[in-house]
Fold this protein.
Amino acid sequence: MHKRHGYDAALRARGSLTSWITAEAIDHWVVQPRSTRRGQGFYLDFAIKTNQMLRLVFRRPLCKTQGLMGSIFTSIFA
């Protein structure tokens, strides 16, 4: 039974996601203010490149990757 416990732990660890987010990344991730009354806010190139990299790594559509990044940063700021 002991071997089975180690096998199960290894399977759980294989599915874990560890990431390191620097203070610089957090500072650059915040949406810049709108330039006009009804204009859209814009992200810096750093945030866009990070989002595109994760989209390619996880092979997900852009809207899903945006949701992933939103949940990551929401958990950091909470």
Remarks:
- Helices lie at 2-14, 23-29, 45-58, 62-77.
- The chain has a mean pLDDT of 76.
- Residues 62-77 form the longest helix (16 residues).
- The chain is about 65% helix and 0% strand.
